[in-house]
């Protein structure tokens, strides 16, 4: 079918109507091929007209000249329980010059499940009237999969939310950057976000979405908190939800589980990037021997076409918990309250051994040789060997004042900085510029230290330094493994920093290939200095710098006689 212009009136509408359909099943999709070509061809849209609803729902739009070609459109209809029609509308405002056509219209998976003679097994549910046999994980998920509503009868309303009447018992996190928004119909920005909700499949239904336009910035996050649940062993608690991630600049959606209230918990699932203009169902089996909470986190991408939607969130086999989750002290290692020193006769220029009260010279503190019997003189120092497998930075520290961007200050979130990473936590495609395996264990589970170039801007600097090292011996050297692979790698430097001088000991720039490379830097005899790893960001996020297995070799100084 194509449009033949037969009128010279200024505003014209051509409509092509479908037959009337009685209903669809939950997996129904409509596809067709369209042609929209010409200098002033104008817009076209597919509308859903549901009996009893005055407002039509826009399912698809073509805004402009799409070139001299046939293109395929796929529309998710989903479960529509009431009679409906489809209307293809072509609007011409004034001068119309072009060709609009449609061909090969196909409905797929639109029937409800057929009746079954029997339906046995713990993982099956037999529908009351239609006698269809469906998966028991589809029960109480806010979707009428049976066609008679029996799979949604007798469900606990506290374990499900379709956002038609607010957030139910979910809450917005107060410690994130902004909130999820409840909305009907399309999001404000074209070519991103849903056009309709998942519950009703129309513009009348509500859902939550994360707005990616200004003032929100790259990697700003919005977190939604579930109610609290009682312990659930062996994955008997099931979390189901539907998400929508459509747009060229969609970034990331993650689900976390926590048992302590002031932590972000551990990652259960994530999805990264554009997943198409459709609602996608996700099922997660959750195990916990402690009361727990679920966190759903959306992260803003690098632009305004990055809206993310959520709808129809439900729990099966889970029990609400009436208490509160415990909290942990936010005091971090290295900032603990110092213990009372033992009785001693040490001067201010001497170090007091924590257990014995023995006095040693201050230059013997942090010199890679324990001089106190309890080794307390080396306890707040950089570790002689560090493989990051205990998920600490081994004494290397990154003062906030040393995170910089050009010659001006920036806010402390989304800063180019060093952090712990591992291959198991990478998102798709990130392994092209960040190590998939560490050097220590050669697995995706092994940890390393990397400067994350998805933050910051071109030329930004990230420094990470040892505490002050008092003294090193004549053979002292630092050996480490580095990984510099990617199309826009900046540089990595090793610096020696004293109170009034910083000198460059080693430097490497550009991509060095997809492997770990050994480096060795001679230190020799030095006193009261810091070793600094400095990463400089390249022109884009495709250039992470990583280090692993850092070792100070032969660094103990010559023995100092007691005085």
TrEMBL record:
Annotated coiled-coil segments of the chain: none
Residue limits of the MAM domain?
1-112, 159-320, 384-557
Q: Which InterPro entries match?
A: ConA-like_dom_sf, LDL_receptor-like_sf, LDLR_class-A_CS, LDrepeatLR_classA_rpt, MAM_dom, MAM_domain-containing
What are the alphabetically sorted keywords of the record? Answer: Disulfide bond, Repeat
The chain's disulfide connectivity reads 140-155, 366-381
PROSITE patterns from the entry?
Answer: LDLRA_1 (PS01209), LDLRA_2 (PS50068), MAM_2 (PS50060)
A Gene Ontology cellular component where this protein is annotated is: membrane
Taxonomic superkingdom: Eukaryota
- PANTHER family recorded: APICAL ENDOSOMAL GLYCOPROTEIN PRECURSOR (PTHR23282), MAM AND LDL-RECEPTOR CLASS A DOMAIN-CONTAINING PROTEIN 1 (PTHR23282:SF140)
Q: What is this protein called?
A: MALR1 protein
